[in-house]
């Protein structure tokens, strides 16, 4: 997990309708981890297929928020709070949440949400994170939609609240998708039962999920009917619960206090998930020798698992064992060459060695990561550092400018982008990226 707690990213969404607010104003953290994202993608894949959506363009995004909630704000992303993931018991319950949210997309409910988002951003001055909307800052021609994060309760209901009619429609479609994927529809009922009775509580005591997903007796009664009438038409993934347990275990190990994890995972448990959780907790205490010894046992148990090799690389890197970290990340990258977060980790480890001979390889790895996942300002900062150390000042300025604009800092981004355009060949890819940053900042300044 790439320093999960640091990924509080506020993107300056100048392109169309959004404002830029300082990082400290509204933003909540986006938790990034290749292992967890793979696990959730594996759980979501059958739902996407059943709904007729392309799994390649759909993303599950985890928001670091203890309050249980999930929502969609565009047609490409499902956002789930960490608090909800840690509250669910089974893979099928996670899949039920995803199926319900996907049904809002396929039901056309997002168009109304996007109109409300525009109104809310103007009226309430919300901080909005658009994970893909800063096309100008990244050179990526695919404009993804937006995500409002860290907003007040009333505004959140405007953005993510659905009518009872929409909820009933999403229930029925979601159940249908689950049945097609071979997932027992009862899981959706189990999720909603957790929030049953919330509407009788005062608003301050309600869980956000109950406020943004209105619950009624009629809705629950209808849902029971949908579930009873549904017939499974496929076989579920037999390893679904393993992957959910692994994702939840890792998430919990990084979010909860280390003592909590060490109490809950006995030293006698030699399963791979238990070893992983103990290694993370020991690393966070910190007890580096014990953490690395536990990771060595884990990697020996699962030698062909790229995500455990990646975790070993992270622990070694953060323990300042740079050469060993490079070795671990290279193993991970060999097993999963198309995983951008692993490539980014390899690049960081190579940079950390301070060996000038490693700079070309570091740049290659970091550029491979940027090509597949260009919305990480931390990655762009490392690229800027690598280019600066190699004497490529214009490319360093370009990547630094993109990192700044993703944090909403046009004041810092503009002069760096101008420096990049002066040093790069006119009309080149890098020159065009720098021009996009300049244009985005100019647009943002005009809207203020």
Describe the structure.
With 448 residues, the chain is mainly alpha-helical. Helix content is 62%, strand content 4%. It contains 23 helices and six strands. It has a four-stranded mixed beta sheet. A two-stranded antiparallel ribbon has the order 5-6. A hairpin with a 5-residue loop joins strand 3 (70-71) and strand 4. The longest helix has 19 residues, at 429-447. The relative contact order is 0.11. The model is unreliable at 3-27 and 119-158 (pLDDT under 50).
Strand order, sheet with most strands: 1-2-4-3
Query: Can you count the helices?
Result: 23
The share of residues in helices is 55-70%
Cα shape: globular
Provide key terms for this protein.
448 residues; mainly alpha; four-stranded mixed sheet; two-stranded antiparallel sheet; 23 helices; 6 strands; 62% helix; globular; disordered N terminus
Q: Would you kindly provide a brief summary of this structure?
A:
With 448 residues, the protein is mostly helical. The protein has helices at residues 23-26, 34-51, 82-87, 91-106, 110-124, 135-138, 153-160, 164-180, 186-194, 208-212, 217-229, 240-255, 258-264, 272-284, 288-301, 306-318, 322-335, 340-352, 359-372, 377-389, 393-406, 410-423, 429-447, and strands at 29-31, 59-64, 70-71, 77-81, 128-129, 147-148. It is built from 23 helices and six strands.
Can you lay out the helices and strands and say which pair or pack?
Elements: H1 23-26, E1 29-31, H2 34-51, E2 59-64, E3 70-71, E4 77-81, H3 82-87, H4 91-106, H5 110-124, E5 128-129, H6 135-138, E6 147-148, H7 153-160, H8 164-180, H9 186-194, H10 208-212, H11 217-229, H12 240-255, H13 258-264, H14 272-284, H15 288-301, H16 306-318, H17 322-335, H18 340-352, H19 359-372, H20 377-389, H21 393-406, H22 410-423, H23 429-447
Parallel strand pairs: 2-4
Antiparallel strand pairs: 1-2, 3-4, 5-6
Helix pairs in contact: 2-4, 2-8, 2-12, 4-8, 4-9, 5-7, 8-11, 9-11, 12-14, 13-14, 14-15, 15-16, 16-17, 16-18, 17-18, 18-19, 19-20, 20-21, 21-22, 21-23, 22-23
């Amino acid at each position: 997990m790439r320093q999960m707690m640091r990924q509080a990213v506020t993107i300056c969404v100048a392109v169309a309708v959004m404002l830029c607010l300082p990082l400290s104003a509204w933003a909540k953290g986006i938790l990034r981890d290749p292992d967890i994202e793979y696990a959730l993608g594996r759980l979501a894949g059958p739902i996407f297929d059943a709904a007729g959506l392309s799994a390649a363009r759909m993303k599950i995004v985890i928001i670091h928020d203890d309050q249980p909630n999930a929502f969609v704000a565009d047609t490409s992303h499902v956002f789930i709070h960490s608090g909800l993931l840690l509250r669910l018991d089974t893979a099928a319950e996670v899949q039920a949440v995803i199926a319900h949210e996907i049904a809002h997309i396929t039901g056309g409910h997002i168009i109304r949400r996007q109109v409300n988002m525009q109104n809310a951003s103007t009226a309430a001055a919300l901080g909005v994170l658009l994970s893909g909307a800063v096309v100008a800052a990244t050179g990526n021609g695919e404009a993804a939609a937006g995500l409002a994060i860290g907003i007040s309760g009333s505004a959140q209901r405007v953005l993510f609240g659905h009518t009872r009619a929409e909820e009933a429609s999403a229930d029925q479609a979601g159940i249908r998708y689950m049945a097609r994927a071979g997932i027992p529809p009862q899981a959706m009922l189990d999720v909603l039962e957790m929030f049953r009775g919330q509407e009788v509580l005062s608003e301050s005591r309600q869980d956000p999920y109950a406020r943004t997903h209105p619950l009624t007796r009629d809705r629950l009664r209808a849902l029971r009917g949908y579930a009873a009438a549904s017939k499974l038409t496929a076989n579920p993934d037999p390893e679904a619960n393993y992957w959910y347990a692994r994702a939840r275990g890792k998430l919990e190990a990084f979010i909860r206090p280390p003592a909590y994890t060490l109490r809950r995972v006995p030293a006698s448990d030699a399963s791979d998930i238990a070893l992983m959780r103990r290694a993370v907790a020991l690393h966070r205490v910190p007890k580096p020798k014990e953490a690395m010894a536990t990771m060595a046992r884990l990697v020996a148990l699962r030698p062909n698992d790229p995500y455990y090799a990646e975790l070993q690389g992270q622990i070694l890197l953060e323990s300042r064992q740079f050469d060993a970290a490079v070795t671990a990340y290279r193993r991970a990258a060999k097993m999963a060459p198309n995983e951008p977060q692993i490539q980014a980790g390899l690049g960081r480890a190579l940079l950390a060695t301070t060996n000038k001979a490693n700079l070309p390889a570091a740049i290659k790895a970091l550029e491979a990561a940027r090509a597949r996942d260009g919305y990480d300002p931390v990655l762009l900062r490392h690229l800027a550092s690598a280019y600066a150390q190699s004497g490529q000042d214009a490319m360093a300025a370009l990547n630094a400018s993109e990192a700044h604009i993703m944090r909403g800092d046009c004041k810092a981004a503009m002069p760096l982008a101008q420096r990049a355009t002066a040093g790069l060949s006119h009309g080149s890819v890098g020159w065009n990226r720098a021009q996009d940053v300049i244009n985005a900042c100019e647009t943002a300044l005009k809207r203020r």
